[in-house]
Amino acid sequence: MSDAYCSDCKRQTEVVFDHSAGDTVCSECGLVLESHSIDETSEWRTFANESGDNDPVRVGGPTNPLLADGGLSTVIAKPNGASGEFLSSSLGRWQNRGSNPDRGLILAFKTIATMSDRLGLVATIKDRANEIYKRVEDQKSSRGRNQDALLAACLYIACRQEDKPRTVKEICSVANGATKKEIGRAKEYIVKQLGLEKGQSVEMGTIHAGDFMRRFCSNLGMTNQAVKAAQEAVTKSEEFDIRRSPISIAAAVIYIITQLSDDKKPLKDISVATGVAEGTIRNSYKDLYPHVSKIIPGWYATEDAVKSLCSP
Description:
Layout: E1 2-6, E2 11-18, E3 23-26, E4 32-34, E5 44-45, H1 48-51, E6 57-58, H2 85-97, H3 103-119, H4 123-138, H5 147-161, H6 168-172, H7 180-198, H8 210-220, H9 224-237, H10 246-259, H11 267-274, H12 278-288, H13 292-295, H14 303-307
Antiparallel strand pairs: 1-2, 2-3, 3-4, 5-6
Helix pairs in contact: 3-4, 4-5, 5-7, 8-9, 8-10, 8-11, 9-10, 10-11, 10-12
């Protein structure tokens, strides 16, 4: 019960909600204050008798505006038990014979969702990747191309556009066998197609070395103090004209920070954690070395410790 103003009693009275009729009734005079109200809370139903699971589940899934039927079509699955096996399998065969224009999209969206889950990406990135793929697919020009590379490239572009970039190597690790070269080609193709659709270049978002720093440091198990120093150092490094990729700069900064700490990390471990080749890290370190005293925070390492770093 709760209080509401009753126009008949001329005061605040307790009211009763009749959920079956959708009525709000005054408990004192019986006046119906509101009728046929809509309950906007979540609708739950339990399928405990059917699946042995006591947890309630929502009635129906969310709609998907990228699919022609909104993603609300019925799919006949194989039964768990023997009862009704013949009937359901026959219905399933008849359903498969029917043409479903969204079948390819549904499979593609499932693949993107799987890759996103394996990378720990948020739902907004997955949705953006789905949208990019749908726009490319609508142009009917992707036939004959490597589907796995195309989906991986959509995810790569979505990460860039949502300011949560991932390296091509990270995307490649979940791309069902697609190589870095294939994903790179697919990315260029998608950018070109979307550019033709809009009549202008596609914004990909600028990559900064700091975008990768916390994740790379986490992969190496670095301390909070070392992570903070690495983030400050990589921010300072942007003030200098270091012509290296942001990922290479991030790896080189991590190498410098770990060399100044008690927990030194081998170059091989940094290469594995960042996906940057050992030779590339060495060359990036050479470019950073002249500026080391200016980019390393004074609270993290003394000037003598910085000068004691091995020259490249």
